[in-house]
Amino acid sequence: MKFYHFTEFAWPHLPPEDEYTSMRLNLPSSVYDPKIGADLYNMCLDQYVLADELGLNCMVNEHHQTATCLNSSGVVPLSILARQTKNARILILGNPVANLADPIRCAEEMAMIDNISYGRLDCGFVRGVPYELFASNRNPTETAERLWDSIDLIVKAWTTHDGPFNYEGKWIHKRHVNVWPRPYQQPHPPVWTTGGSDLNHACQTVTRGFTFAMFLTPVDKLAAMFNGVRAWCKAQGLQRPADSQFAFMPLVAVGETEKEALEVIERVFWYVTNNKAEPQHRAPPGYVETSLYADFLSGRFTGGRTDAIRQKGMEYFRENHVAIYGTPDNVANQLRALHKKVGGFGHLIAMLHAGDMEFDMTAKSMSLFAEKVVPQIRNLGTVRKGFGPLPKARKRKAA
Amino acid sequence: MCGVDGKAAATYGWEKEKPEMPKRSRSKTEILKLQQARIEVERLGKGPPLLLLHGEDGYELNADLMERLSSRFEVFLPRMPGFGKSTLPDTIRKIDDIAYLWLDLLDHYKLQKVTVLGASVGAWLALEIATKNCGRIKKMVLAGAVGVKFGGAYDRDIADIYFHAADRVRAMRFYDPAKDPQADMTGYTKAQALAVARQREATVKLCWEPYMHNPALRQRLNRVTSPTLVVWGTKDGVTPPKYGRALARALQDVTVAAIPRAAHFPHIEQPELFGQALDSFLSD
Which residues does B contribute to its contact with A (CB < 8 Å)? Predict the structure, then answer.
């Protein structure tokens, strides 16, 4: 099992909640104070340097036009970490490549970062949450296809070493692709994607040999998804994917006592409770499946994951392994149980910081996690040795 | 500007009391194969041909507009790809693509001297068709048209119906929000909700960017030569009346009807006043 530290670089100094309708898209940037914000950026980057020193890996992301995440480009912190960390895997999860104007620019940036970090890059690609479509102007009905077209083009650009090729696809036209530099890792950095309820997307990810990640998903749904992928692979006659092709991100807090851990997780929980958004931004037509959108229109579906879970207490989150907290032994046991319940996974992305948590509080929780939890469960899970698409399963010899 | 002052104008069957409204079940529905799409076309009435082009919400599919028009016209009401039984193949990505489908439809029925009546996105389609081939169009009626960009880069010519909250969008679209046929969908069956969801997805696919317009259409409007009635709700919050005036200035042979107490869908909110404007224009 690999372990990652994650913070979303949120802007926590918000007006009273009844004075704004959404943290995303329409909250004016007058709410942001650069003098405080500059410190905040550097405090979050310091967390990643500490993560590296503690033997943890690093995960960064990006969102746009929102107070929930000040990284409007994941490439910026990733570039800094390529130099400021020494041993950590640096994971971007991910590049919103369906929304980007130029996927080849993304291929170039990632190849540079892979070189500068001496091959420590894990390169995620995401479709992006629905809010992003208003910031990017990308057509909601197109992004699922654009994501895969872009990933395929980027992988081809990374792995073509005999001069330029051209590309005139449905969404992207390039008269001349000849990416320099080539990536440090050969044939290319590990690729990840994230997903929600779309099993087909998850299966595409895993069968190509990539890693599939889910965030803050209650254990039953997480197990259904991971097991759904494994069952699909089996039905296709493919080898069982290794645990290292599955990743999960919960909220995490570790304390010397249960009381201390509870105090910390309640601060991490800021991420869940401070997510005010306008409903129409969550569901532009064409983003979710037609059936789900129909339920949204007719009132059969209200809110979704965030609204439903923010109304339930912390214990609910612990039972569902969405919030994992407690003393080191307790946290290790929760992770063992989670690993078993979902049939295995290989990457644990721990959201150890959120909202207005101070550096010292975060650092203590991170240190306990790295020093007291990780050694207990480091060997959990199987690791994929090969590369490329998932191979066919070997036929068993007749008895 | 033609007068819309409430005078009775019964020629086309627009009077308020009409107890014996013909049943829509009399209409005939056909499925055509046009290019890669299967297109559902509803036909009703006898007389000169009228092509009725519905808008982004398909309000015109359920309104009694077709009934009223069918008293004097043979009305052709095709469902846009993604609406009703019409399929939305991958090859259709822009309103411009549908304009070519509707030109094929005119070919299929061998229609000449057609009156084209479009609402909102349907009016945009009417303009696209007319700029490609105006030869078959006798007259055009455009209600709350979209499709043309008149302002500068920083001007929001057409209000964003996706960004704003549902109540605010409804207030932009309807002078009386209660008249929105889709104001409350909580009683919809799953099948009904799915049909609306499919329509809205189709509209987003076709109209998200460039938002509700074709940047090339403005300089092509010189090709629209048929007499055109531009109908506007004086309370339109989606395309305000100044948008309608800009459109009227860009067309050659134009009559403008401003409908009071109506917003973006004057034919839905004020059918009688809309009918009078139509009557006056079509009887000229």
Answer: 162-166, 185-186, 188, 190, 192-194, 196-198, 200-201, 203-205, 208-209
Q: How far apart are CA B165 and CA B180, in angstroms?
A: 15
Burial of B278: CB neighbours in 10 Å, binned 0-12, 13-18, 19+: buried
Q: Is the pLDDT of residue B18 over 70?
A: no
Which of A131, A280, A296 to mutate: most B Cβ within 10 Å?
Answer: A280
- Summarised one tens digit per residue, pLDDT across range A210-264 is 999 999 999 999 999 999 999 999 999 999 999 999 999 999 999 999 999 999 9
Would you say the pTM of this structure is higher than 0.90? yes
C-alpha A266, offset from chain centre: 21
* CA–CA distance, A260 with A262 (Å, rounded to integer): 5
Q: CB distance B197–A290 less than 8 Å?
A: yes
Would you say residue B216 lies in a domain?
yes
CATH number at residue A199: 3.20.20.30
Do the Cβ atoms of A66 and A24 come closer than 8 Å? yes
CB spacing of A297 vs B193 below 8 angstroms = yes
Q: Which residue has tokens 């590049």? A: A95
Dist. CA A356–CA A271, nearest whole Å: 10
The pLDDT tens digits for A150-167 are 999 999 999 999 999 999
Preceding amide of A187 cis, omega within 30: yes
| Residue labelled with tokens 């092709």 | A245
Q: Which residue has the higher pLDDT, B4 or A160?
A: A160
Phi–psi pair at B117, nearest 5 degrees: -120, 120
Q: Would the CB atoms of B203 and A137 count as touching at under 8 Å?
A: no
Does residue B13 have a pLDDT over 50?
A: no
* Residue A388 covered by a domain: no
> What is the domain count for chain B?
1
Query: B107 is in which domain, residue-wise?
Result: 24-283
CA A316 to mean position of chain CA atoms = 22
Alpha helices in chain A (DSSP H): 34-54, 75-84, 103-116, 132-136, 143-159, 199-207, 219-235, 258-268, 270-273, 279-282, 290-297, 305-310, 314-319, 328-341, 359-368, 374-377
Other Cβ atoms closer than 10 A to A247: 27
**Using an 8 Å Cβ cutoff, are B229 and B140 in contact?**
yes
Domain that holds residue A337: 2-95+109-133+190-377
Q: Which of B95, B121, B163 to mutate to test the interface with A (most CBs of A within 10 A)?
A: B163
Alpha carbons A143 and A382: distance in angstroms, whole number: 32
Q: Which two tokens stand for residue A371?
A: 């020093």
Scored b (16 or more CB within 10 A) or e, B162-180 reads bbbeeeebbbbbbbeeebb
According to DSSP, residue A372 is labeled: I
- For B193, the closest of A137, A138, A295 (CB atoms) is A295
Model confidence pLDDT, tens digit, residues B181-232: 999 999 999 999 999 999 999 999 999 999 999 999 999 999 999 999 999 9
- As for how many domains chain A has, the answer is 1
Q: Please, is A147 exposed, middle or buried when counting C-beta atoms within 10 Å of its C-beta (0-12, 13-18, 19+)?
A: buried
Q: What is the pLDDT of residues B129-156, one digit of tens each?
A: 999 999 999 999 999 999 999 999 999 9
User: Is A245 a domain residue?
Assistant: yes
Which letter, b or e, does each residue of A342-372 get, where b requires 16 or more Cβ atoms within 10 Å of its Cβ?
bbbbbbbbbbbbbbebebebbbbbbbbbbeb
Determine whether A302 is exposed, middle or buried from the number of CB atoms within 10 Å of its CB (0-12, 13-18, 19+): exposed
β-strands B114-119, A191-194 pairing: unpaired
Say if B115 falls within a structural domain. Answer: yes
d(CA A32, CA A324): 31
When pLDDT is averaged across residues B9-20 and rounded to a whole number, the result is: 42
